[in-house]
């Protein structure tokens, strides 16, 4: 009887799992629609009073996205005031929705990867994960890997889609 050989385990492929860079912290959306006067206008005096009295400590070590889902113009200074109040508490504070927050969390994590360690390797960026990895994270990791690697593939080591292959000199 012929011995069964795991060719995937013996291959020179290196797997990069983006889900390993998922920040486990809680994500919270702060919607400014609740601060608007008559649901339409942000009044400076009222907003400053709200910002002064809001319990910013509830965001301790959490990831906070600040947006306004109402059809209203939120002046830039309002986001600046929020930043000065919330930054001391939050792990990450962004202007945008929860998708924007997730994208920035992944981009921050990707910026800390040592891409030099992938030099001249054949890399498979794992496609299936237990967490929702934004498409922008796959794009960013490919952009950062490309100068270092022999090849980039997407999927699983047993079934990959070629993405990039360095030309032989």
Total count of helical runs of at least 4 residues: 5
Q: What coarse outline follows from CA principal-axis ratios?
A: elongated
Main β-sheet, spatial strand arrangement: 1-5-6-7
| Overall mean confidence score, pLDDT | 92
Q: Give the end-to-end Cα distance, rounded to a whole number of Å.
A: 43 Å
Low-pLDDT residue intervals, each spanning 5 or more residues: none
| Number of spatially distinct domains | 2
**Number of DSSP strand runs:** 7
CA radius of gyration is 22 Å
Give the percentage of residues in beta strands.
Answer: 15-25%
Largest sheet: 4 strands, mixed
The assigned structural class equals alpha/beta
* Percent helix: 25-40%
Helix and strand succession? HEEHEHEHEHEE
Question: Could you characterize the architecture of this molecule?
Answer:
By secondary structure, this protein is α/β, with parallel strands linked by helices. It folds into two domains: 7-23 and 112-165, no CATH class; 27-90, no CATH class. The protein is 30% helix and 21% strand. It has helices at residues 7-10, 44-53, 76-86, 98-111, 135-145; strands at 13-16, 27-31, 63-67, 92-95, 122-126, 151-156, 159-165. Strands 1-5-6-7 form a four-stranded mixed beta sheet, with helices on one face. The chain has a three-stranded parallel beta sheet with strand order 2-3-4, with helices on both faces. Strand 3, helix 3 (76-86) and strand 4 (92-95) form a beta-alpha-beta unit. Helix 2 packs parallel to helix 3 and helix 4 (98-111) packs parallel to helix 5. The longest helix has 14 residues, at 98-111. The two termini are 43 Å apart. 18% of the residues are buried.
């Amino acid at each position: 009887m012929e011995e069964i050989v795991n060719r995937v385990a013996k291959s020179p492929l290196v797997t990069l799992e983006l889900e390993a860079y998922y920040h486990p912290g809680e994500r919270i959306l702060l919607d400014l629609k609740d601060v608007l006067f008559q649901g339409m206008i942000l009044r400076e005096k009222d907003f400053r009073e709200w910002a002064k009295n809001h319990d910013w400590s509830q965001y301790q070590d959490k990831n906070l996205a600040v947006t306004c889902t109402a059809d209203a113009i939120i002046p830039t200074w309002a986001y600046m005031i929020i930043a000065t109040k919330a930054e001391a508490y939050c792990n990450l504070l962004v202007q945008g929705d929860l998708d924007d927050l997730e994208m920035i969390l992944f981009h921050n994590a990707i910026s800390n990867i040592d891409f030099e360690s992938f030099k001249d390797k054949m890399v498979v960026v794992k496609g299936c994960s237990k967490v929702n990895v934004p498409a922008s994270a796959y794009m960013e990791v490919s952009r950062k890997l490309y100068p270092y690697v022999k090849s980039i593939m997407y999927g699983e080591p047993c079934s990959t889609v070629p993405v990039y292959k360095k030309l032989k000199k």
